[in-house]
């Protein structure tokens, strides 16, 4: 990692941990730096048969995330909870869609993270067909399978902000602020290390039992000290500079931050179109309107971020992300309390009902088995994993 990692000296404007003491700041920075320079080893002693697979928690492009119980006696050195969310990715698909680098980045970033609003990573392993990332299991809300968005291009199985938002319709602005502030903190932290997230959307945000958020899915996260050109993200959330194949940096995350604020408050994203082409036209032409129900502060925040010209986009100018944090929309938000998760309980808008992970009512009926090939597929490509 470049020297930019150690940026953020106390006298700089871009002081990332607005809520932590100087000691904590140094500690978090050291943690990230030390881990970054080590490669997280894949655990050769682990294999899928050490786990009881309970149910699928979510699906993605290259596999699925499964709730798994580590069988007793199998791996004594494992710490903490015995339930894990295991992200299982198909090696063949990763190779076919050229996602190898993304997967290595994903694990490397996960390994370095230490933030209250990011999902915790434990270990990884691989076999002939798949690679596995094991994460802290966030139970979220009960599965809601019967909402109308099921037929749209986006849908999920439950446990994440997407399912909760579609179920609720939209959030009031106090609620939006509480969630947006946490996403702000995550981006502030990642950007301090020049890591871009690049895939913000409600599907990738989980709600923990205490009602605070956990960002998951670092599949597009990447260390980018300067600019990058890769086309990645989710159509509704794509910033104009990615659509236009321009080089980009942290600006893309702030664009998606505004899209998320809009989607949480309106119940749908700001830009739409009959198909992807029309959607992208709406985005590059800034064709959207804020509902009249939005407060002036929220509409102003969104208007100042959803700006095509990156040099005048809020969050991307001389004061960096501080311009977003200091925007009137966040006037009533105490970032310190949110970071330390010490808000009054009644300021936390929603806490998912606790449920037993083994409760039969939350088991899905037809789980397809995970078939592992007898041959070690793409062994060479995944040697580094
Ligand atoms: N740690 C977790 N605990 C519970 N559910 C999770 C966890 N991580 C991911 N999920 C669920 O699995 C889905 C897919 O995982 P994700 O990492 O986003 O995969 P992809 O990169 O394929 O989009 C998520 O949208 C979420 O619903
Ligand atoms: Mg995802």
UniProtKB/TrEMBL annotation:
Residue positions binding ATP: 87
Catalytic activity as recorded in UniProt: L-seryl-[protein] + ATP = O-phospho-L-seryl-[protein] + ADP + H(+); L-threonyl-[protein] + ATP = O-phospho-L-threonyl-[protein] + ADP + H(+)
Annotated keywords: ATP-binding, Kinase, Nucleotide-binding, Serine/threonine-protein kinase, Transferase
Source species, domain of life: Eukaryota
Region of interest (Disordered), residue spans: 347-370
Keyword Nucleotide-binding set for record: yes
Signal peptide segment: none
The EC number(s) this enzyme carries: 2.7.11.11
Stored SUPFAM superfamilies: Protein kinase-like (PK-like)
GO CC terms of this entry: cAMP-dependent protein kinase complex; cytosol; nucleus
GO molecular function: ATP binding; cAMP-dependent protein kinase activity
PROSITE patterns assigned: PROTEIN_KINASE_ATP, PROTEIN_KINASE_DOM, PROTEIN_KINASE_ST
Protein kinase domain segment(s): 51-330
SMART domains registered for this protein in UniProt: S_TKc
Top class in the EC scheme: transferase
PANTHER family linked to this entry: CAMP-DEPENDENT PROTEIN KINASE CATALYTIC SUBUNIT 1, CYCLIC NUCLEOTIDE-DEPENDENT PROTEIN KINASE
Homology family: Belongs to the protein kinase superfamily.
Protein name, UniProt field: cAMP-dependent protein kinase
């Amino acid at each position: 990692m470049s020297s930019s990692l150690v940026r953020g000296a106390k006298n700089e404007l871009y002081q990332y941990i607005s809520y932590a003491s100087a000691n904590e700041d140094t500690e978090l920075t050291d943690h990230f730096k030390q881990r970054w320079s080590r490669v997280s080893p894949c655990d050769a002693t682990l294999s899928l048969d050490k786990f009881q697979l309970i149910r699928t928690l979510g699906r993605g492009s290259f596999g699925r995330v499964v709730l798994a119980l580590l069988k007793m006696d199998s791996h004594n050195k494992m710490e903490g909870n015995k339930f894990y969310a295991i992200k299982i990715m198909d090696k063949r698909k990763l190779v076919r869609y050229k996602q190898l680098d993304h997967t290595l980045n994903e694990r490397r970033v996960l390994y370095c993270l230490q933030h209250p609003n990011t999902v915790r990573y434990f270990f990884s392993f691989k076999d002939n067909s798949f690679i596995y990332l094991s994460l802290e299991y966030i139970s979220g809300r009960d599965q809601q399978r019967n909402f109308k968005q099921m037929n749209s291009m986006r849908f999920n199985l439950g446990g994440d902000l997407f399912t909760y938002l579609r179920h609720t319709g939209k959030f009031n602005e106090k609620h939006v602020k509480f969630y947006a502030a946490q996403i702000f903190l995550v981006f502030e932290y990642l950007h301090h290390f020049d890591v871009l997230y690049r895939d913000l959307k409600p599907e990738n945000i989980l709600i923990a039992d205490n009602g605070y958020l956990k960002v998951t899915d670092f599949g597009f996260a990447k260390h980018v000290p300067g600019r990058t050109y890769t086309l990645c993200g989710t159509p509704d959330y794509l910033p104009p500079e990615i659509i236009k194949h321009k080089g980009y940096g942290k600006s893309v995350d702030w664009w998606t931050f505004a899209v998320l604020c809009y989607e949480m408050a309106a119940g749908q994203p700001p830009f739409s179109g009959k198909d992807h082409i029309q959607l992208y036209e709406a985005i590059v032409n800034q064709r959207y309107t804020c509902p009249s129900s939005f407060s002036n502060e929220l509409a102003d925040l969104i208007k100042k971020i959803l700006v095509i010209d990156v040099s005048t986009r809020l969050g991307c100018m001389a004061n960096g992300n501080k311009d977003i944090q200091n925007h009137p929309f966040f006037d009533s938000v105490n970032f310190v309390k949110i970071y330390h998760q010490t808000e009054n309980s009644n300021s936390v808008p929603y806490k998912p009902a606790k449920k037993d992970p083994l409760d039969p009512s939350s088991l899905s009926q037809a789980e397809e088995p995970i078939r592992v090939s007898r041959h070690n597929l793409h062994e060479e490509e995944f040697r580094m994993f």
